[in-house]
Amino acid sequence: MKDDTVVILGCGPVGLLSIKWAAFMGAKRIIAVDNVDYRLKHARLYGVETINFEEYDNTGEHIKEITHGGADVVIDCVGMDGKKSTIEKVETVLKLQGGSKSAIEIASQSVRKGGTVVLVGVYGSKYNMFPLGDFFSRNITLKMGQCPAHAYVDRIMNLIKSDKFDATDIITHRLPLSKGKQAYEIFDKKIDNCIKVILKPGL
User: Fold this and answer.
1) 5: number of CA atoms within 13 Å, CB side?
2) Residue ranges in the chain assigned as alpha helix (H)
3) Which of 32, 59, 78, 154 is the right S-S partner for 121, CB 3.0 to 4.6 Å?
4) Closest of 167, 166, 107, 177 to residue 142, by C-alpha
5) Phi and psi, residue 187, nearest 5°
6) What average pLDDT does the segment 26-50 reach?
7) What's the Cα-to-Cα distance from 157 to each of 12, 41, 150, 152, rounded to whole Å?
């Protein structure tokens, strides 16, 4: 990832930490994409470029243009909870589709030939019109799956303990465990500029 151009789709807690890790690993250029203003504002604190995808008719093509051919790596931190089209809303209700694939479509358009797309966001079961041909014809490497946390936790904890990496600046709310339901509501409905809630039994 050193000297790569990296696009991060989604500026929630996973996306924001992905931005920080991309910078930590030496990415040359990082572009963060979301449609929530306060999340984009937080991303800009890291010194990266930001794009509100609602300001463009085709965000993927815009990214391809400003990166002169596409990003080396696109990391989808959105998953099935991305913005759904009307058709996707109907298909999801009818169980014909596992949610939105809007981030996948942006990724397929904004990655360079021979680049890599990483699906970190969680996806459901079936997806109609998945852009497999676009990935295949341009020799795109796809990586995806649940994070094998056990393989990384010790290394990450050592970096945090030695003050080489700060994973705490995304925390916006700290609540007692007894207010777990409220915490999920604050996060889900994006109340009070919420990015990450920490629940502590002792509060």
Assistant:
1) 15
2) 13-24, 37-44, 59-66, 86-93, 102-110, 132-137, 153-161, 180-188
3) 78
4) 107
5) -70, -50
6) 97
7) 21, 27, 11, 9
- The answer to whether 18 touches 75, Cβ cutoff 8 Å, is yes
Superfamily of domain 5-144 in CATH is NAD(P)-binding Rossmann-like Domain (3.40.50.720)
Burial of 149 from C-beta contacts in 10 A (0-12 / 13-18 / 19+): exposed
pLDDT score of 96: 63
Query: Following DSSP, what letter does each residue of 138-184 receive, concatenated?
Result: TT-EEEE----GGGTHHHHHHHHHTTS----TTEEEEEEGGGHHHHH
The pLDDT, as a whole number, for residue 34 is: 95
* pLDDT 10s digits, 41-92: 999 999 999 999 999 999 999 999 999 999 999 999 998 777 767 766 776 7
Contact 195, 42 (CB under 8 A): yes
At 117, give phi and psi (nearest 5°). Answer: -115, 125
Q: Where are the domains of the chain?
A: 5-144, 170-203
Q: Any residues with CB less than 8 A from the CB of 72 and at least 6 apart, and which?
A: 1, 4, 5, 6, 111, 112, 115, 116
